[in-house]
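Entry:
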Amino acid sequence: MRDKIIVQKNQKSTKRDKKAKIITIQDAMCMLIETKGYENVTIRDIAEAASVSIGLIYKYFPGGKFDILKEIGYRYTDELLRIKQPETIDFNDFPGYMRDVIKNMQQFYKDNSPLIKALIMATLSDSEIMDEIKKMDVKDYKTASEFFAVSMALI
């Protein structure tokens, strides 16, 4: 009986954890994009799938779906490039680091192919996203377009 109470308390503290909520929202959006496509996903859908309120989504992501999508991108970029793990990077073996990054990217694309395809198609077909991309610095825009070209080739 006592164990059950402890588990319930731990679950409640997890549900109140901001970082956990943000990840839950992002994961719900990823799942919905894979199944419905970006353009068909609504904030209400995300709220229901993540078991959070619409207000909470806008609290953490004031720009709505696009803000969630950007944060998902940042999250995966961090994972792929190990940005938040600088201690794992041996800058004396930079070619080795780049090989690891490429392996990580290939594995990520392999494991998440439907999501990557959906995100790329959403980006290419959604006027709101394209408007945001057009606001980028020309160098960033070129980098983004090269990324999508390489991404499509890898998939």
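The radius of gyration is 18 Å.
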